[in-house]
Design brief:
The structure holds two protein chains of two kinds. Chain A is mostly helical. Helices cover about 75% and strands about 0% of the residues of chain B. Chain B has helices at about 5-15, 20-40, 50-65, 70-100, 105, 120-135, 140-150, 155-160, 165-185. The chains are: A mainly alpha, B mainly alpha.
């Protein structure tokens, strides 16, 4: 599209006004022929501005295209950004309606996800019953439905006596997803046990059966995420059967999976909050550990007769707060609470010890502190039943941490935790837990003073009582403001109490994203500490650390950095280099430094962080893994691939060890590692990684998720480098098939086609390359409304091979113009274009021009990819071809030697491109 | 936040007082985010708010149940819509930032392996496209903002813009065509 140079009067808005008039006219017409005729007629008018009309045509075409982003109400599309999903009223299904092959016979109830019906299907003389779950309209998003279809296949494979059979699933005519499940006649497990006054042993026996069923599903990569008594029915034969397996995860959309923060949302809304795990409330990734937690709640209830929290059922926030913040009660203590249970004391004695520990381990707030698997959970219970020592005792320390963190979450929230979570750094709770380690004294002190602060806040919250507030209810914000005000009155002159309260208030503001308010409070806190302890005291440093975190979050990295430095200096003076607080501040300093653009220093600090987390937490800690990942990313940003590699590899291996291969974090980390290895020319490693990862990604992510497609394209690139051209083309054909269906008008698809072209060219099939290259250019243009200089360059190169010099010249010139207009005069893409034009000159036997261009391209390569790339090897060869004798003979060995060395890094020995260069090198005249 | 302050700000900003608009916007933004935060916390109890409802609740909260002058009402709705856009874009940015642990995936990646857009990216792309529309036709961009982020219907828009509903629908079609084209551009061209 050659746009004329815009004149001075042709500002975007002036131009738009002219476009707008025509567009309005066109929009009045019926889409299709009528508009086309009008366009043609208008173009024929005198003085018609073709360029303008082209834009109008483009806009008219766009007006006829569906757009998921614009046509979906913002609620259903972007509400996930709030980790929420809008509820949309669905037409209510009724008895007598047909759903797939099923006929709704009677309503069974209504759950969080939608209506449940008893249904029948009859074919001939055979009748089958099913429980049909119709999901409410909130689940209708297309991406959810796609996910639902994939998951359905997995569910259909689950076959276990303890799991209600998944019979059928589909989507009704109006798009409502439904599941047909085996009808189970039974009683919720808790009611069953209560009604029969089952003994502890009997309860444990039933619970272990439940565990077996859950474990079976986990082995089949299905998590439940909504385990609760009403989903666990004990049938007449006395065995439990689980309902609704995998339904929660089937309804997670792709973005939900992409983004751990949103992962739990749609599910959380549906599930019964009593049994939800903290990560379901807080929005962490849902894993098998989520089910371990819910099973822990269930076991607590089975043993103690009550939930592990005390919850005010009237208060909407009560559940989430309890689950996130309240330490779980020990079953033994809980058993004592209920005065109506005369056997309470006896039961408490029976539960005290092992069972308490087992339950609490399952109920750890932090997923990684729970049992690794449901099987491990069940094994520990069996050990207890057999009278063997249980595993949970080994982690007495961790157990204490859980309690500490639960109790002090409020007070600690402003410390490492929130900051790191926001920084995308270390997982907060792991650090919080560690904070307690070795700092019992500090903790006790803090507990004492925070108790006073909490009481004070509680007093404040009583203000929200309507009677006291004279009919006026206070918002959180007003309460916070009031709290800050009261600091000066009720706590005046008591800095020992003011400081923890300021700390809490600042932390609350930080969590709420109100950084300015948080900063003001944190500053006051720091001032008080300075007066009490002086500038170098550890106490001052702790307050300063919170201030630094807030400043960093408020996008003020410069003052944040200064404070972090002061913090670190204080800790060093206090001999606290091994403390979590020190490492937190070090991470903060590194991040702030990076933000300020000093990437060399950032790398140095992150390296320190890696070394120290290794010493403090060990090589198998999440903290160490995150530190490695951070350093790897920082090195990568500086283009230091080789240095980044061990850290990226280390992190990927650690995730595999901690989470297993089937975890999205592990898969993405391995994908990234493969890319890095590819850039380093470690083809064998790329193949090794992708061969393992790809099938898992196809299964876990589905065949059309971007990660899977990216991995496949990477795999195709490697296959090509390994001279497996047929394999590479087959892999790409798969990607093309998926994208043609799901993303036909995307730039991404254009890039895939471009890869098809380059592979075809390498495979010696320039005709196919031309076809794919043309489609790539056209696809990009359709998707982006402009041409890509890079794709034009590639197609130009293909056409040169086809001997179509004229068209190749036009494309390469156009690409050059586009680059010039975009101010692109360096980097790999520009080098490609200069090389392409050199190649064109060579084909035209303009050797001097070719020499000039190849030399220019070579200089560009040397600055953009000093270690050499496959394209730079081609430039070396081109340059040699453009030289005249005697220079040609003289430079034959150095030029081809370098090219051969570069290609040897990327290509398999049998690759024709490499063989050709090596052969020519061997034929060089002796130096 | 006493209601007089905001109303004063609204009046001041209507009279073109510089800074008043920004300040009023900041207030609305704060309130919206506070409510969104509350919504998140309340989620587990099954109580849900939609983004549109959120805008309306913000509106109600800030108008303190008073009957506002028409002008103030429109102004406040406009602020709420703008605030919603900002909140969503911020949330999208935060999402993006969270994922930059995937730094590795972005950096050093062959351009042909750039991943397809996520919802967060989509929101950012929409925001960019809207800014390009703003450069060309501010009124049209306002229309999109109010309709899309503020959840105003054609009738309300017609009233606010002082146009008839037909014109509003046509303007929306124009704006939509522009945005669809801009969004179609996908990831930026390499090179």
């Amino acid at each position: 599209m050659s746009a004329p140079e815009p004149g001075p009067a042709d500002t975007p808005s002036a131009r738009w006004r002219r476009v707008s008039v025509l567009l309005e006219e066109g929009l009045e017409l019926t889409p299709g022929d009528e508009r086309q005729r009008w366009l043609a007629a208008t173009a024929g008018r005198d003085g018609a501005d073709r360029d303008l009309l082209a834009e109008v045509a483009q806009l008219l075409a766009a007006s006829e295209m569906p757009s998921a982003a614009l046509d979906t109400p913002i609620d259903s599309r972007f509400a996930t950004l709030f980790e929420d999903r809008a509820a949309v009223a669905a037409p209510a299904p009724t008895v007598g309606d047909r759903v797939g092959v099923w006929k709704l016979v009677a309503p069974l109830g209504r759950g969080g996800m939608g209506e449940v019906f008893l249904a029948e299907r009859s074919s001939g003389d055979f009748a089958q019953r099913a429980a049909i779950k119709l999901l409410s309209a909130g689940w209708l998003q297309p991406e959810v439905q796609e996910r639902f279809r994939q998951e359905r296949r997995i569910l259909a494979r689950l076959e276990h006596p303890g799991i209600a059979r998944f019979l059928d699933g589909g989507v009704t005519a109006d798009g409502t997803p439904f599941f047909a499940l085996e009808v189970v006649d039974g009683e919720p497990i808790t009611r069953y046990c209560a009604a029969r006054r089952a003994t502890v042993c009997e309860r444990l026996g039933l619970f272990l059966e439940v565990c077996d069923a859950v474990d079976y599903a986990h082995r089949n990569l299905v998590v439940h995420c909504d385990l609760k008594p009403s989903n666990i029915l004990v049938t007449a034969d006395g065995h439990p059967k689980l309902l609704d397996f995998g339904i929660a995860s089937a309804l997670r959309s792709d973005e939900d999976q992409d983004a751990p923060a949103g992962a739990a949302r749609p599910v959380v809304r549906a599930l019964t909050p009593e049994y939800a795990a903290p990560e379901q409330i807080a929005g962490g990734p849902l894993t098998t550990a989520t089910d371990v937690y819910s099973l822990g709640v269930l076991l607590h209830e089975l043993l103690a007769g009550r939930l592990p929290y005390s919850i005010d059922r009237g208060a909407p926030e009560s559940f989430s707060r309890a689950i996130l913040e309240q330490p779980s009660t020990r079953p033994s203590a809980a058993a004592l609470v209920d005065a109506s249970r005369p056997e309470g004391a006896r039961l408490a004695r029976c539960l005290r010890g092992d069972l308490d520990r087992i339950v609490l381990r399952a109920l750890a707030k932090e997923p990684s502190a729970r049992y690794r698997s449901v099987q491990a959970f069940a094994d520990d219970l069996r050990r207890h039943l057999d009278g063997r020592p249980i595993d949970a005792r080994r982690d007495e320390l961790g157990y204490r941490f859980g309690k500490f963190v639960g109790r002090h979450r409020f007070a600690l929230a402003g410390g490492a935790a929130t900051f790191l979570a926001l920084a995308g750094g270390l997982v907060a709770t792991a650090w919080q837990a560690r904070r307690a380690e070795g700092q019992a004294a500090l903790a006790r002190q803090e507990a004492a003073s925070s108790a006073a602060s909490l009481a004070f806040l509680a007093d404040l919250f009583a203000v929200s009582d309507p009677a006291q507030a004279k009919g006026r209810s206070f918002t959180d914000r007003e309460l916070l403001a009031l709290a800050a005000e009261r600091l000066d009155h009720d706590l005046a002159g008591k800095p020992g109490l003011q400081v923890p309260l300021l700390h809490q208030l600042a932390s609350i503001h930080m969590q709420r994203g109100e950084y300015a308010e948080g900063i003001a409070l944190a500053r006051r806190e720091v001032e008080l500490q300075l007066r009490r302890f002086g500038p170098t005291a550890v106490e001052t440093a702790r307050s300063r650390s919170l201030l630094a975190n807030l400043l960093w979050l408020a996008d003020q990295p410069a003052p944040a950095r200064a404070h972090y430095r002061a913090v670190l200096a204080s800790y060093e003076r206090g001999g606290l280099q091994g403390s979590e607080e020190y490492l937190t501040a070090l991470g903060g300093l590194a991040t702030a430094t990076g933000l300020l653009g000093d990437s060399a220093e950032e790398v140095r600090l992150k390296r320190q962080l890696v070394d120290r987390t290794r010493t403090v937490f060990g090589e198998e800690s999440q903290a160490y893994g995150e530190a490695c990942q951070g350093l790897g990313a920082a090195l990568l940003r500086r283009g230091r691939y080789a240095d980044a590699e061990p850290f990226a590899a280390g992190a990927a291996e650690l995730w595999r060890k901690l989470y297993g291969l089937e975890h999205p974090d592990t898969l993405v980390a391995l994908n990234n590692l493969a890319i890095l290895e590819g850039n380093l020319g470690n083809g064998a490693r790329v193949g090794e990684i992708l061969r393992e990862v790809l099938p898992v990604e196809k299964r876990i992510f589905g065949p059309d998720r971007s990660d899977t497609l990216a991995a496949q394209r990477l795999w195709a690139r490697q296959q090509e480098r390994d001279a497996d051209f047929a394999g590479a083309r087959a892999t790409l054909a798969e990607v093309v098939a998926v994208q043609r269906r799901t993303a036909a008008a995307s730039t991404n698809f254009a890039y895939t086609l471009n890869q098809v072209a380059t592979v075809a060219l390498a495979a010696g099939d320039p005709a196919a390359a031309e076809l794919a290259g043309r489609e790539a250019v056209a696809t990009y243009q359709a998707a982006a409304g402009e041409r890509s200089s890079w794709l034009l360059t590639v197609l130009g190169g293909v056409l040169l091979q086809r001997g179509k010099l004229g068209e190749a010249a036009a494309l390469l010139t156009e690409a050059e113009r586009l680059e010039r207009e975009a101010g692109q005069n360096e980097g790999a893409f520009h080098a490609e274009n200069v090389h392409g034009r050199g190649d064109l000159a060579l084909h035209r036997v303009e050797r001097a021009e070719a020499r000039r261009l190849f030399a220019e391209a070579l200089a560009l390569w040397r600055s953009s990819a000093p270690e050499g790339s496959r394209s730079s090897a081609r430039t070396l060869i081109g340059l040699l071809a453009a030289l005249d004798e005697p220079e040609r003979s003289a430079r034959c060995r150095p030029l081809l030697g370098e090219a051969a060395a570069i290609l040897a890094r990327f290509l398999a020995p049998s690759h024709p491109e490499r063989l050709a260069v090596e052969k020519s090198f061997a034929a060089c005249p002796p130096a | 936040m006493p209601e007089t302050t905001l109303l004063e700000l609204l009046a001041a900003s209507r009279q073109g007082e510089s800074g008043a608009f920004q300040q009023a916007l900041a207030e609305v933004y704060d309130e919206l985010r506070r409510l969104a935060h509350f919504q998140r916390r309340a989620l587990a109890s099954g109580a849900t708010l939609s983004t549109t409802a959120l805008v309306h609740e913000t509106f109600l909260k800030l108008s303190q149940g008073q009957t506002l002058a028409v002008q103030d009402r429109h102004h406040l709705m406009a602020l709420a819509a703008r605030a919603m856009r900002m909140v969503l874009v911020d949330a999208a940015r935060a999402r993006g930032a969270e994922k930059r642990g995937a730094d590795l995936a972005v950096e050093g990646l062959d351009p042909d392996l750039i991943a397809t857009a996520t919802v967060a990216d989509e929101m950012l792309a929409l925001d960019r496209a809207l800014r390009r529309l703003e450069e060309r036709d501010e009124q049209l961009a306002r229309l999109v903002e109010w309709r899309y982020f503020g959840g105003m219907n054609d009738r309300e828009l017609a009233e606010a813009f002082g146009r008839n509903e037909r014109t509003i629908r046509r303007d929306w079609q124009k704006a939509r065509a522009f945005l669809v084209r801009e969004l179609g551009a996908g990831s930026p061209a390499p090179g």
